[in-house]
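Progress narrative, Year 2. Work on DUF1707 domain-containing protein from Pseudonocardia halophobica advanced from sequence curation to structure prediction during this period.
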Amino acid sequence: MDRGNLRISDADREAAAQRLHLAMSEGRITLAELEERLGAVYAARTYAELEPPFADLPAPSGPPAAPQAQVPAVREDVHLNTEMGSIKRTGDWPVPPKLRLTTSMGSIHLDLTGTATPPRIAVDVATGMGSITIVLPPGGSADVDGVKTSWGSVSTKVPHTPSGSGPHLVVTGSAGMGSLTIRHARKGLKDWFGA
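Result:
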């Protein structure tokens, strides 16, 4: 079977996205080109669909979507972008000190309760008509004073000032016509009834 027709995994997409970030840091592509190519990478379903964003870039020492061992586990900043789709991060995932979250009509859900986090995380949001939800571990806090809204909503159910026992988010950007929600993990029945 032609390898190009084989389905790719989420790990393949993340490795390809890391290649694009590296290309931008080397000055090979602009920020606008990075965002456009990331959209193609995250929409790709097969290896063949993953090739066009790299057509004018040097080939790595392996297949286009192969994980690159030299790329650090946690980058300084990460941009998660979706038009109408959804992005979800849960469990143990590398949380950077800077996050940029962009959605037009889609949703982004980030759960920080099951992973190590920096003590301070700068988050820049742009919701369009979409939604962004960030779930913090106990002790987590968030300052959302830097978020502008027009028709959108900003809902925070965590302390505004850092306690020192959890990550502190400093959030800027705009809610547009969408929603931004920052909360702690919801309690299950065992938590409520002490079972």
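Residues 62-73, 189-195 have pLDDT under 50 and may be disordered. Helices lie at 10-25, 31-43, 47-50, 189-193.
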